[in-house]
Amino acid sequence: MRLRQTRSLVLAAAVAVAVSACATTTSPTGRTQVVGGVSQQQLDQMGEQAFAEMKAQKAQTTDARQRAYAACVVNAIVRELPPAWQQRYRWESAVFVDNSPNAFALPGGKVGLYTGIFTVARNQDQLAGVISHEIGHVLANHHNERITRQVGAQGALQVAGAILGSRYGQGIGDAAMQGGSILAQTGFLLPGSRVQEAEADVVGQQLMARAGFDPRASVGLWENMIKASGGNRSPEWLSTHPEPQARLAEMNQRATTLMPEYESARAAGKRPNCG
């Protein structure tokens, strides 16, 4: 879709945000959310379009093993989503050539990984920790929540400007979209609040345990992420997350409580063999 059409879509969504009656709902962890800034149909369309733009503009890996590995983990996690979430979308994954240790999931059933993620997610359980966390953002409706909150604070025109004009991260902004794609924008690709990140941790560990991935692997994953930052500037994933050591402690404690669910999943035959 051409850039002019992209802008029209986003502007239409922004106007809809301004005039829509927002609603409260309950997140998977029981938290009250204010959503309704955009309809689910609009949100899905934005995610699908953003993913298509990124695939058109950013190189994907030619390594068939990496693609199959990512798809295997994504599919195992998706099978644990509520039936409506499995039926609503044709879930799709892509692996982009980029040394940044990043990943994302978008409304519309789209999951993207950067090749750099394999340097910190060193086995299938750790990769499941990455993917389940990102899908957790979608399942918890964080993108809609973020956009709704932005509109309440800034108004429709400012949201349209933020979605079309601002950049979120040098790698995404420079390499993926350059000048206005939805995918690169604050509040869409990386929802970003600490509350949302903590919630995605909870949802993600639950999903991976149910899928037969070891929930304890999330701890090792985030330890690797912290080390990858070199002790200097935090990587993008950590920039809006809870304090790292407290987060690791919570993950470790949560993993312990999820072990019976993980063992039950394994006993039921859920034994992913993704690579």
Automatic annotation (TrEMBL):
Signal peptide, first to last residue: 1-23
Family: Belongs to the peptidase M48 family.
Cofactor requirements of the protein: Zn(2+)
Originating organism: Solilutibacter tolerans
Keywords, in A-Z order: Hydrolase, Metal-binding, Metalloprotease, Protease, Signal, Zinc
GO cellular-component term (any): membrane
Residue ranges constituting the Peptidase M48 domain according to the UniProt record: 87-254
GO molecular function terms listed in the Swiss-Prot or TrEMBL record: metal ion binding; metalloendopeptidase activity
Superkingdom per UniProt: Bacteria
Name the record gives this protein: Peptidase family M48
Cofactor binding mode and count: Binds 1 zinc ion per subunit.
GO biological process: proteolysis involved in protein catabolic process
